[in-house]
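In this section we walk through a basic example: taking a raw amino acid sequence and producing a predicted 3D structure, encoded as discrete structure tokens. The instruction is simple. Fold the sequence below.
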Amino acid sequence: MGKFVGDGFVTTKEVLRRAKENKVLYIGRIKKNWIVEVFGKKFKIEELLEKEKLCKRTVEGKEFYLASKVVNIPEVGRVKIVKCLMEDKKEPYYLVSTNWKKKPENIIKEYLKRFWIEEKHRRDKSILKLEGNYLRSEKSNNGFVLLMAALANCIEFLSHKLGLTFYDLVNLCSVEIWRGLFT
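The resulting token sequence is shown next.
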């Protein structure tokens, strides 16, 4: 079974639905105003977990106050929502897991792996002298175009080296990536 971890920018109902359809574990951050159902009643996530008792847990050496609930998201199905409040933060954040049987501590443990992905992005952006978030400023968008051009040049170089067309190499890489995710 493949695993994906995403943030609030990536996590959508469509992503969750497709992950469930393809039996992929998806864990991601979601907005507190998403509408969910519990026993046929609709709630905003923040309202639903507002009065839940928070339990103190240590995950990967960090202390969290957690509450969780299994809910139904329309057009997605049953998922687990975890409210997380780090000891040094004022506002909680909310995570969703397509595996509604997964323990809240394990959901957080998986989500914390995003830190290393973000570190890689920061490193890549500093090497390429990029800044900010994509789609938010002209300079960062120009950096994204630069990154895509560098990627295209690498693929073009490999295609000549391996004697494959550009599109055959992209297709081969895509197939291998997907195969690796689901094996």
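Looking at the output, two observations stand out. The chain has a mean pLDDT of 82. Helices lie at 13-21, 45-50, 104-111, 114-127, 138-162, 166-181. In the next section we compare this with other chains.
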